[in-house]
TrEMBL record:
It comes from Candidatus Muproteobacteria bacterium RBG_16_65_34. The beta subunit is responsible for the synthesis of L-tryptophan from indole and L-serine. HAMAP family: Trp_synth_beta. Coiled coil: none annotated. This is Tryptophan synthase beta chain.
Length: 450
């Protein structure tokens, strides 16, 4: 019978993460301080341990994975690569479809790949507590799990709309010992200011980041952990693409196109960056980041310096942004509601080295249901964006007769997202295209630097 799962042994877990900076044609734009001048790495010491800071600014191609981190990775890694035979048959496509499935992790998504690493480095630095934000809850639950593995306290500021829509994500975090608060909250000065202006604020990732950064900066025993966007986070996620390359080779295949959903960029960078190394060396392939039309950071945003949070506590990063005061609609793909994007992903897109596409919400759920009925796995709403574009690529092959090989990252399962599926089946979900006028208005309030 044809192979469905392509598996690796635990001994084949990568020993190093891949740093895409080594193969980028131009060096990354530096983070800036409020005065518009590049900040020294040491300026990040108030919220990050030194090992993380060094990874953030590193240009080395390979960064060793500590054995203590690999030991915990063994709970679920290597994750399986699937050949989607049944989906191919349902679509009637000549294309070959492969997907890397990250929903086998304890938290059900790709997020523990960096959560475990960040918890390890903070533990080594003598830190006792971690503060963070979360949108849909995948990141918060991942850091709660990682904190439990290393004996760290974890406090999570969860975007209020997700806090209310996804109660079982909260329960998951609390099971692993984390404190969880709806953001904006009354626990921080940032939260209190936002609530004073809008007591019914649904929250945003930018707001939650402000609260978590404020807490970390104000306590010596506490550091901040981020689930996406920054260089070190995408570095840790490259274990996904590195495993996928080994598995594709084992299957005797190589992708023509690599696809992943993109909110802050860790999921896309995780699977795509190791393949970018081949693209940089001259191999022909496409790398496609998929975002929602309701939060079209890459496809409608501006490439400029902006704050990573709403209040303006973080350094300025050069990235595609919808404006740090962007207020996203309450769509269920909560992990894709961030106003900005990874500076590395943004720079590669700006330089024409990767692609980006925005897709509407209803089409993503339609694709997710079609995938689940063929393959049996229920995808997270965020992952449905990648499923949508993978199906569209396969259907284009059906029309043209091309026999392309498609690889996408199924970044998490949807077991905690059934309320969203319920709304889809009952016809309560609707498409929303973020208006150009709203983007233009936000652009007026970008910091005047860079």
């Amino acid at each position: 019978m044809p192979q469905t799962k392509i598996l690796l042994d635990e001994s084949e877990i990568p020993t190093h993460w891949y740093n895409v900076v080594a193969d980028m044609p131009n060096p990354p734009a530096p983070p800036l301080g409020p005065d518009g001048k590049p900040i020294a790495p040491q300026a990040l010491g108030a919220i990050f341990p030194e090992a993380i800071i060094m990874q953030e600014v590193s240009g080395e191609r390979w960064i060793p994975i500590p054995e203590a981190v690999r030991e915990i990775y063994r709970l679920w890694r290597p994750s399986p690569l699937y050949r989607a035979h049944r989906l191919e048959q349902a679509l009637g496509t000549p294309a070959k479809i492969f997907y890397k499935y990250e929903g086998v992790s304890p938290a059900g998504s790709h997020k523990p790949n960096t959560a475990v690493a960040q918890a390890y480095y903070n533990k080594q630095a003598g830190i006792k507590r971690l503060a963070t934000e979360t949108g849909a809850g995948q990141w918060g639950s991942s850091l709660a799990f990682a904190g439990q593995m290393f004996g760290l306290e974890v406090r999570v500021y969860m975007v209020r709309v997700s806090y209310e829509q996804k109660p079982f994500r909260r329960s998951m975090m609390q099971t692993w010992g984390a404190e969880v608060f709806a953001s904006p909250s009354d626990k921080t000065e940032s939260g209190r200011k936002i609530l004073a202006a809008d007591p019914k604020s649904p929250g945003s990732l930018g707001m939650a980041i402000s609260e978590a950064v404020e807490e970390a900066a104000g306590r010596k025993d506490t550091n901040y952990s981020l689930g996406s966007v920054l260089n070190h986070v995408l570095l840790h996620q490259t274990i996904v693409g590195l495993e996928a390359k080994k598995q594709m080779e084992k299957a005797g295949e190589y992708p023509d196109v690599v696809i992943a959903c993109c909110g802050g960029g860790s999921n896309f960078g995780g699977i795509a960056f190791p393949f970018f190394a081949d693209k940089a060396a001259g191999r022909k392939l496409r790398l496609v980041a998929v975002e929602p039309t309701s939060c079209p950071t890459l496809t409608k945003g501006k490439y400029a310096y902006d704050f990573g949070d709403t209040v303006g506590l973080t350094p300025l990063l050069k990235m595609y942004t919808l404006g740090h005061d962007f207020m996203p609609p309450g769509i269920h793909a909560g992990g894709l509601r961030y106003h900005g994007d990874s500076p590395l992903v943004s720079q590669l897109y700006h330089e024409g080295l990767i692609e980006a596409v925005a897709v509407p919400q209803l089409a993503t759920f339609e694709a997710g249901v079609q995938f689940a009925r063929a393959e049996g796995i229920l995808p997270a709403p965020e992952s449905n964006h990648a499923v949508r574009v993978a199906i569209d690529e396969a259907l284009a092959c059906k029309k043209s007769g091309e026999k392309k090989t498609i690889l996408f990252n199924l970044s998490g399962h949807g077991h905690f997202d059934m309320a969203a599926y319920d709304k889809y089946f009952s016809g309560e979900l609707e498409d929303y295209s973020y208006p150009e006028a709203a983007v233009a208005e936000s652009m007026k309030r970008l910091p005047k630097v860079g």
